[in-house]
Write a structure and sequence with these properties.
The protein is mainly α. 58% of the residues lie in helices and 0% in strands.
Length: 118
């Protein structure tokens, strides 16, 4: 149980470090945490494969690998997250219908051609 908690806390910290290093503010916080967790897991696998997962003292190489993988993931996901936030098609959430006139109750830009029909 505590191992899962430490994975989430460590992944959140690694994800936030990767986000700060990559300067990708457009990636949502939940995605940053998920990418940090994924980066930590992949970094552990790489560290185990090259034989530096368990060393005496602090495992600096393993931590650098985890942050490096998380940075790569944030760099890959960042453009997709930004695309959904610019308005216009794509994305999900409140901006999903931005620019289309649908989804905004009091929008001036919405299509009113149906109101001219009598």
């Amino acid at each position: 149980m505590f191992q899962i908690l430490w994975i989430v806390i460590g992944g959140a910290i690694i994800g936030l470090i990767a986000r700060a290093l990559m300067r990708r503010g457009g990636v949502p916080l939940w995605a940053t945490v998920c990418l940090g967790i994924l980066g930590a897991l992949i970094g552990n696998v790489i560290a185990g494969a090259i034989g530096v997962r368990h060393t005496g003292g602090v495992d600096w190489i393993r931590h650098i690998l985890q942050i490096g993988v998380a940075c790569a993931l944030v760099a890959l996901v960042g453009p997709f997250a930004m695309r959904g936030r610019r308005g216009g098609g794509g994305g999900t959430g409140p901006n999903m219908f931005a620019g289309s006139g649908r989804g905004h109750k009091y929008s001036r830009d919405r299509d009113r051609s149906h109101s001219d029909m009598r």
